[in-house]
Every structure is written in C-alpha cells, then in structure tokens.
Amino acid sequence: MDRAALDAAVAAGVPYGGWCPAGGTAEDLPDGGLLTAYPHLRPTDSDDPAGRTRLNVRDSTAVLVVAPIHLVAGGTLLTVDEAGRLDRPCLVTTGPVARVVEWIEALRVPCVLDVAGPRASEWPEGYDVARALLDEALRTTTL
C-alpha cells in the first residue's frame, strides 16, 4: 500500500517522503529500484523492512492501513502496533472513501500520513484498492 500511496501522491502533486530498506529494494524492484522511482525516500541502515516500518510510523502524525482486517499480520501488524506504541492515530480500512476523508479531516493539519498495508504477494488486489481510495481521498481533502 505504500507504493500506491507514493504513486497517488506523485499524481496529485503532494510531497512525499519516508524510509525504505537499505539499498532501496522491494519485492518487485531489486537493485535500488525504489530509490530510482521515488528519489525522495531515504534508505535505512538495514535491509530489514521492520526498521523502515518503525521509522515511517515515528515520522508520521497518523497512520492509514489499507487492508482487510484478516490480513493485518506480519509487517502490517507491526505498523499498527507501532502506531499504538507511539500514540499515532491509526485507521485500518479498505474504504469507503468518505470514511477516510472524514478521518483525515479530523486530524491536526498539516498531516504527515504513513500509509501501509500487506505486500502485493500477500494481497494482489491491494495496490488497486489503495490507489483508488487514495486518489479519491486526495481529490477530496488536503493533508
């Protein structure tokens, strides 16, 4: 879901940032492909995705997890747990857009939103769900 959020932000002209594992790799973007595609990301010192997860939550003011509740496990669960530990507002949802917009608008502004969710290998349709949700939310509200 983080990739959907990055693509939605780029398409909407919203500044983006955050952390990626050392080397800028992802399941489908080996050899630093994340840093090539998203040059405003910063690599962590480790290739362990958990470090990236913790830093992204730490540097946010709120966390949006786009996932069906039964897929909140592994790194996605780490995100939710870290949001709770750091007292970040956290919404786990797959929509509707109105719910997400209402939640974002209730947050303090400006908002630094960490968007997370299961890997594409765990939820193949997740990118499309998150991208549609975020495209519409960004058209409707201001972070």
Essential attributes:
3-stranded parallel beta sheet, alpha/beta, Rossmann fold, 5 strands, two-stranded parallel ribbon, 44% helix, 143 residues, 6 helices
What does this structure look like?
This protein is α/β, with parallel strands linked by helices. It is 44% helix and 12% strand. The protein has a three-stranded parallel sheet. A two-stranded parallel ribbon has the order 1-2. Helix 1 (2-12) packs parallel to helix 6 (126-140) and helix 3 (49-58) packs parallel to helix 4.
Chain-averaged pLDDT = 94
What is the CA–CA distance across the termini? 17 Å
Q: What would you call the structural class?
A: alpha/beta
What is the level-2 CATH architecture name? Answer: 3-Layer(aba) Sandwich
Strand-residue proportion: 5-15%
Short description:
With 143 residues, this protein is α/β, with parallel strands linked by helices.
Task: Indicate the topology.
Elements: H1 2-12, E1 19-20, H2 33-37, E2 42-43, H3 49-58, E3 62-66, H4 74-85, E4 90-93, H5 97-106, E5 113-116, H6 126-140
Parallel strand pairs: 1-2, 3-4, 3-5
Helix pairs in contact: 1-6, 3-4, 5-6
